[in-house]
Amino acid sequence: MPIITIKLAKGRTREQKQQFVEMVTQEAVKTLNVKKEWVTVIFEEYERDNWATSGQLHSIKLGDGFGQ
């Protein structure tokens, strides 16, 4: 029973997340040889003020709306 956790910055639409979980679930079924019903996908979303790369907050480095 795979549990797949996706960590990403907030801002994706419901449609984008739905498309993503369909693709991830399909690949997990194929690669791990499990039933679709066994695959769980969890999104952990973060504000860009709570995420940094190379010593700079994403809200400053990338600006509002990046990735949307």
From TrEMBL:
<comment type="similarity">
    <text>Belongs to the 4-oxalocrotonate tautomerase family.</text>
</comment>
<feature type="domain" description="4-oxalocrotonate tautomerase-like">
    <location>
        <begin position="2"/>
        <end position="56"/>
    </location>
</feature>
<dbReference type="InterPro" id="IPR018191">
    <property type="entry name" value="4-OT"/>
</dbReference>
<keyword id="KW-0413">Isomerase</keyword>
<dbReference type="InterPro" id="IPR014347">
    <property type="entry name" value="Tautomerase/MIF_sf"/>
</dbReference>
<dbReference type="InterPro" id="IPR004370">
    <property type="entry name" value="4-OT-like_dom"/>
</dbReference>
<protein>
    <recommendedName>
        <fullName>Tautomerase</fullName>
        <ecNumber>5.3.2.-</ecNumber>
    </recommendedName>
</protein>
<dbReference type="Pfam" id="PF01361">
    <property type="entry name" value="Tautomerase"/>
</dbReference>
